[in-house]
Amino acid sequence: MTYQSDNPELIDSTKTGREEKSQAKSQKLAAFLAHGGVASRRRAEELILNKKVKVNGQVENNVARRVIPGLDVVEYQGKTITIQEEKVILAINKPPGVVSTVNDPDGKPTVMKYIPPQYQDLRLFPVGRLDELSEGLILLTNDGDLAYKLSHPKYQSPRTYQVNITGRLSSTELRCLQSGIQLKDGRTQGADVIVVDETNSGQILEITIKEGRHHQIRRMMQALNHEVLRLVRLSHGPYELGNLPSGQWRLEKSK
């Protein structure tokens, strides 16, 4: 026989631990995956939609699903995900010829090879992309919130590049870059452009953009009939390449 009290205070005191925790600690599944170092929040949503994530043994494809850390069991690639307390940010000076992904199906070297041994067990992932031919700053982190803020278009996080081009920009071309270039995927936002130096073959520019389109700067220059000879990312948001040597890493503080 089950006894049910008509005393509201007694009924409230018998709430399950799950009910109490759900009110205080539930969070969206994508945020949980990001905090657990699986991927950025945006990428985590894609993983959920593509049915790559399980919650309590069941495949979950609802990005609005909320979970309770410590009670719900979340799995990705057969591993149970737990929220990592230690947040790590590594700055890498990516050499050309290295891809900025966790894995490459063609077996090309990735930025993951530059993670030092003491951080190999953490689920670090690249923040954004830097194409294979380009070099310079790329961040690796297990902080999903940071990756989201640096990558999502709504935050307009600036990225600055040193760009060596063939030929010299005319005043008209410079104005075009500053006001926006029409590309196949739409018009770009205006870029900040500084002519740093001139060489026998062309110019060295410093370009700052607040978008992260695929090969954006190379395509902008191609639209103006200039070839990019070298492209180096100097900064991403508040993080700077500085004097970090090619192929080396540096531990960064959260900014």
How is this fold's topology laid out?
Elements: H1 8-13, H2 17-25, E1 27-28, H3 29-35, H4 41-49, E2 53-55, E3 58-60, E4 66-67, E5 74-76, E6 79-80, E7 89-94, E8 125-126, E9 135-141, H5 144-151, E10 159-166, H6 171-179, E11 182-183, E12 186-187, E13 192-198, E14 202-209, H7 216-223, E15 228-236, E16 239-240, E17 249-252
Parallel strand pairs: 9-15
Antiparallel strand pairs: 1-4, 2-3, 2-5, 5-6, 7-9, 7-17, 8-9, 10-14, 10-15, 11-12, 13-14, 15-16
Helix pairs in contact: 3-4
What does this structure look like?
The protein has 255 residues and is of the alpha+beta class. The chain folds into three domains: 66 residues, Structural Genomics Hypothetical 15.5 Kd Protein In mrcA-pckA Intergenic Region, Chain A, CATH 3.10.290.10; 74 residues, Pseudouridine synthase I, catalytic domain, N-terminal subdomain (Alpha-Beta Plaits), CATH 3.30.70; 79 residues, Alpha-L RNA-binding motif (Alpha-Beta Plaits, 2-Layer Sandwich). The chain is built from seven helices and 17 strands. The strands form four sheets. Strands 7, 8, 9, 10, 13, 14, 15, 16 and 17 form a nine-stranded mixed beta sheet that branches. A four-stranded antiparallel beta sheet has the order 3-2-5-6. A hairpin with a 2-residue loop joins strand 5 and strand 6.
